[in-house]
Amino acid sequence: MIFKTCKIFPAPFDVRLPKGNESDENINTVVQPDISIVCDKSKLDGKGCKGSPDLIIEILSPSTAKHDLKIKL
Fold first, then answer.
1. Which of 1, 53, 56, 67 has its CA 20 to 30 A from that of 32?
2. Which residue in 60, 34, 64, 31 sits closest to 48, CA to CA?
3. Cβ 34 vs Cβ 13: under 8 Å
4. Are strands 48-50 and 15-16 parallel, antiparallel or unpaired?
């Protein structure tokens, strides 16, 4: 079910990105975007968001730009 309005979550907020149907314990990719916007309530649980948020925002600064543009991308 979709939220009537989307929810905004600032970092630190875990976004777990499964490669398939693996259990939470086996998900290796966990990121913390600066801002996550989730409209699908079914993606939220006590650990954060499982699956891609509807929108993420990364705030670039000179000290983190290389990391944000290469590794996080």
1. 1
2. 31
3. no
4. parallel
